[in-house]
């Protein structure tokens, strides 16, 4: 069996579907099925159990795939190391991030990254849905929250601080609140996530008491960029991440209503995280992007 056959089997095991692998490769599913059948016949045992909807590794298939995956990764690393001597990091880097972080922070940095690493092509998936890094073949993911769990390698990119902000136009019309509790009595712009849409938490000092403020309003949206745009348009106060509004606050387009308070909807200790699948080696293209982002993103760890 050659290396291309090994890669095909590894991809099928990750995706759990002949049809999905065929779609990724732009071939007919029957071609994938024939290839697997031929490999199984040559090996003398069945690698996959087939159903009408999914395929899964047999016990023998799990043992076999575990070994050939290690071999394939060793060959990838050997090629990676050899190419790096003359050309630097190369290959396609498949990344995912939320729409708001991708458009606000990541996309503006791409020209600089490409200038430094012209051999790395980028396949960027911006989505607010949770992506399976293994089955969707993601090399590097950017996630948000107090922590990240799962069988992944995780490193912190930057701390996130949330701010309640509003536009000068809104404040001229409605007046500026002097205390967080006043938000309970005026319509707010709310993010359609648990906690974010019903109550915000405030703390005046690092170890001070936490004040819980019930928030309501006529506008709830599911996207951070839309919430940001509505705040800029003067539709009300919004709870937004600092990386999304730093430029607007500096330019006076948005006003931080409570600069002396910490605020959140979930945890006061939250961050932006970089995740990648646990592997026996880290491709140089992934390491290049991790190092570049840590050096380029403000507020980094």
UniProtKB/TrEMBL annotation:
Organism of provenance: Elstera cyanobacteriorum
PROSITE patterns, sorted: HTH_LYSR
Gene3D superfamilies: 3.40.190.290, Winged helix-like DNA-binding domain superfamily/Winged helix DNA-binding domain
Transmembrane segments: none
Name of protein: LysR family transcriptional regulator
Highest taxon listed in the record's lineage: Bacteria
InterPro entries found in the cross-reference section: LysR-type_TF_proteobact-type (IPR058163), LysR_HTH_N (IPR000847), LysR_subst-bd (IPR005119), WH-like_DNA-bd_sf (IPR036388), WH_DNA-bd_sf (IPR036390)
Cell membrane found in the keyword field: no
Keyword Amino-acid biosynthesis among record annotations: no
Domain HTH lysR-type: 1-58
Pfam families for this protein: HTH_1, LysR_substrate
Family, similarity comment: Belongs to the LysR transcriptional regulatory family.
Keywords for this protein: DNA-binding, Transcription, Transcription regulation
Gene Ontology molecular-function annotations: DNA binding; DNA-binding transcription factor activity
């Amino acid at each position: 069996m050659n290396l291309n056959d090994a890669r095909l089997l590894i991809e099928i095991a990750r995706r759990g579907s002949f049809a999905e692998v065929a779609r990724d490769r732009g071939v007919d599913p029957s071609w994938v099925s024939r290839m697997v059948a031929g490999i199984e016949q040559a090996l003398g045992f069945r690698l996959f159990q087939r159903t009408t909807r999914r395929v899964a590794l047999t016990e023998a298939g799990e043992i076999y795939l575990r070994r050939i995956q290690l071999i394939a990764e060793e060959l990838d690393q050997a090629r990676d190391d050899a190419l790096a001597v003359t050309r630097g990091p190369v290959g396609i880097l498949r990344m995912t991030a939320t729409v708001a972080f991708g458009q606000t922070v990541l996309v503006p940095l791409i020209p600089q990254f490409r200038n430094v690493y012209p051999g790395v092509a980028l396949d960027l998936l911006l989505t607010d849905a949770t992506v399976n890094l293994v089955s969707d073949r993601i090399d590097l993911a950017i996630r948000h929250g107090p922590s990240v769990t799962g069988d992944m390698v995780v490193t912190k990119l930057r701390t996130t601080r949330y701010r309640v902000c509003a536009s000068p136009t809104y404040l001229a019309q409605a007046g500026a609140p002097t205390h967080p509790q006043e938000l309970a009595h005026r319509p707010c712009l709310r993010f359609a996530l648990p906690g974010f849409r019903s109550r915000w938490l405030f703390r005046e000092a690092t170890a001070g008491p936490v004040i819980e403020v019930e928030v309501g309003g006529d506008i709830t949206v599911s996207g951070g960029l839309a919430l940001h745009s509505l705040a800029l348009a003067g539709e009300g106060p919004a709870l937004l991440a600092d990386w999304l509004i730093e430029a607007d606050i500096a330019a006076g387009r948005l006003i931080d209503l409570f600069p002396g308070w910490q605020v959140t909807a979930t945890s006061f200790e939250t961050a932006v995280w970089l995740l990648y699948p646990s592997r026996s080696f880290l491709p140089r293209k992934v390491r290049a992007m991790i190092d570049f982002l840590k050096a380029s993103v403000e507020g980094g760890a």
